[in-house]
Automatic annotation (TrEMBL):
Active site positions, chain numbering: 148
Function, in words: Removes the formyl group from the N-terminal Met of newly synthesized proteins. Requires at least a dipeptide for an efficient rate of reaction. N-terminal L-methionine is a prerequisite for activity but the enzyme has broad specificity at other positions.
Keyword terms of this UniProt record: Hydrolase, Iron, Metal-binding, Protein biosynthesis
Chain residues that bind Fe cation: 105, 147, 151
A UniProt-annotated Pfam family: Pep_deformylase
Protein family (similarity comment): Belongs to the polypeptide deformylase family.
Entry keyword annotation includes Nucleotide-binding: no
Protein name: Peptide deformylase
Length: 196
């Protein structure tokens, strides 16, 4: 089932999400719905806060990036068919040089900016079967994971921009939170609070 994606401005996107256990209600159904929602919106990642749940789950399918001609054949191979569910993830370390890449977010449509992130990450997480993993990723794959991981930490990519860039996009972000935007997928906008 395709779920609405929560728009910028909703407080759920600012919460540090909670760990879950394998008894979480209808977990397999939730994960299936998240895949459907992500693919419907042409995303490469989706975190539970983006569908209104402050829990530590995100998923990644980096296959759409594998056709990027700027990547080496090795990088393309790493991205092609990479599909994972990350539950209760913790980034253990981030290493290497920071590099810039143009990022966007399904919760912040039509805003894309260069974001600097470290090259390599080491991450521990549980998969959908609650099997433990500790893995190291680099390059574009690390970046996709870092972006989704930020969501379960209550951080958005716009937080990582310079104060000048933040000022430049302030009006566009306000319009998103008010629903003044046209998108090809279902979204849920924060209710406008009156009398403030």
């Amino acid at each position: 089932m395709i779920l609405p994606i929560i728009a910028y401005g909703d407080p759920v996107l600012r919460k540090v999400a909670d760990d879950i256990d394998k008894d979480y209600p209808k977990l397999n159904e939730l994960i299936a719905n998240m895949w459907d929602t992500m693919y419907n919106a042409s995303g490469v990642g989706l975190a539970a806060p983006q569908i209104g749940l402050p829990i530590r789950i995100f998923l990644v399918d980096s296959t759409p990036f594998s056709g990027d001609e700027d990547l080496t054949p090795e990088e393309q191979k790493q991205l092609d068919g990479f599909k994972r569910v990350f539950i209760n993830a913790t980034i253990e370390e981030e290493t290497g040089e920071e590099w810039a890449f143009n990022e966007g977010c399904l919760s912040i449509p039509d805003v894309r900016e260069d974001v600097r992130r470290k090259e390599t990450i080491k991450i521990s997480y549980l998969d959908e079967n609650f099997k433990e993993h500790v893995e190291t990723y680099s390059g574009l794959l690390a970046r996709v994971i870092q972006h989704e991981y930020d969501h379960i930490e209550g951080v958005l990519f716009t937080d990582k921009l310079s104060s000048l860039k933040k000022r430049m996009i302030k009006g566009r972000l306000a319009n998103i939170s008010k629903g003044k935007i046209s998108v090809e997928y279902r979204m849920k906008f924060p209710s406008l609070k009156k009398g403030r």
